[in-house]
Amino acid sequence: MTAKVSLIGAGPGDPELMTLRAVRMLSEADVVVYDRLVSDEIMALCPPHAELIAVGKCPKNHPVPQDRINEILYEQATQGRQVARLKGGDPMIFGRGSEEAAYLIENGIEVEYAPGITAAQGASCSTGVPLTHRGLATGVQYVTGHRQAGTTLDLDWKRLADPDTTLVIYMGVSNIGQIAVGLMTEGLAASTPVLAVSRATSAQEDRLLTSLGSVAQDSRDAGLKPPTLFIIGKVVSLYRAQPQELPLAAIRANG
Questions:
Q1: S-S: 11 plus which of 43, 54, 117, 209, CB 3.0-4.6 Å?
Q2: Active-site annotation holder among 57, 92, 184, 221
């Protein structure tokens, strides 16, 4: 039997957002190699007999280096086991899934894929904020607000500061102040609305409604932690808070 690894997108957290293909692949696994951001509800779908191998990373803390993750996948597959590589969101969007696939393919391992709903799509559906909208945004840009330790956050600020597109920042909590300054320097208005969504689609989801000029301070005041996604652009004006929600600005105004 050909050695094979299933590269599975778990989606942003809600198990109902997994594809049927992803659920089937997971159900067939003998071993599941999983990331930190895969929710407990999704981990509960793993077969009872499957071995679970945690390889999750935290900001500035990578207990299992990427090279070792690649080796684990190879070793498990060459033992004749059905290997599920389970990643939060979509493994091909800021998930390093393509790096793992390239390593496996170069070493003679077959790779099959199950796409996952990426965090931006999950946040859009849970909050009701569209990523594109006629008259407000003709497109959407996904970027990561994080770089490897010791490297510069060298984003193309001019391209990203487009008032006619929606900008979604992944992994940007620690650098959101620098990101905001970069965008405003290239002409994006400080009044541009921003919606920060933490743990989108999960029972622990939190939201912060703010503006580009205030997002850095408001994020600190709110104590935002990863994983948090920032949606920046005119589409955020369509956000309608639920009755139990209160934007940070209103909390301040009410003392």
A1: 117
A2: 57
